[in-house]
Amino acid sequence: MMLSPTLFANVMLAMAEPEAGHAAGDAHAAHKPLEAMPGIPEGTITGIMAVVIFLVVFAVLAVKVWPTIARGLDERAKKIKDEIDAAQQAKVQAKEALEQYQQSLAQARVEAQKEIDKARAQAQVIAAELKTKADAELGQMREKAMRDIEAAKRAAIAEVYSQTASLASTVAGKVLKRSINSGDTQSLVEESIRQLETAGR
């Protein structure tokens, strides 16, 4: 804190007055009265001393203190400027990172949609293959069932005709009062089967 020249002069004057009183006491003790200096007004020496001391203090402050304070202020200002620059750079980097993240996210969404479409197409292909295979197996099963049904039908018809022929032979034997041999029975069965096939067509 810098003192004004008037205040500094008053302080120095107050410091000089006790010394003058002490010197006057010593003079009275030695019985040697002091005489005023001729041609110099009272208090001029004190004022000159105050000005000299003020100049000395001001020089010391200007040479030693103010450069240190100015250097500290400059360093503080530089630090604040560096922090502002770092904050702006961090802001730019954050913006670039956000843009890159958004681009990556958009690209990931596009790739995910492609994978979904690919999986959907594969599922459709697999479903079509399974349907074709199922249709083929169903057709084979249907053909086998028709063959089995036809074979069972033929067997049932043959059984029916066999029993019918046997019954007819018995009845005819009783009617004709003679027994029909196995050759006659076989002929009757074959003829009945032919007639049945002809009627079925």
Specify the number of helices. Answer: 3
- In quaternary terms, these chains amount to single chain
| Sequence stretches where pLDDT stays below 50 over 5 or more residues | 18-38
Termini distance?
134 Å
- Radius of gyration from the CA trace? 68 Å
Provide the residue-averaged pLDDT.
75
The gross shape turns out to be rod-shaped
- Major pleated sheet: none
Write down how many β-strands occur, each being a DSSP E stretch of 2 or more residues.
0
Helix content bin = over 70%
Order of helices and strands: HHH
Q: What class do helices, strands and sheet pairing give?
A: mainly alpha
Portion in strands: under 5%
Which key terms come to mind for this protein?
single chain; 201 residues; mainly alpha; 3 helices; rod-shaped
Describe the structure.
- The protein is mainly alpha-helical and 201 residues long.
- Helices cover 88% and strands 0% of the residues.
- It has 3 helices and no strands.
- The chain has helices at 5-29, 44-176, 182-200.
- Helix 1 packs across helix 2.
- The radius of gyration is 68 Å and the shape is rod-shaped.
- Residues 18-38 have low confidence and may be disordered.
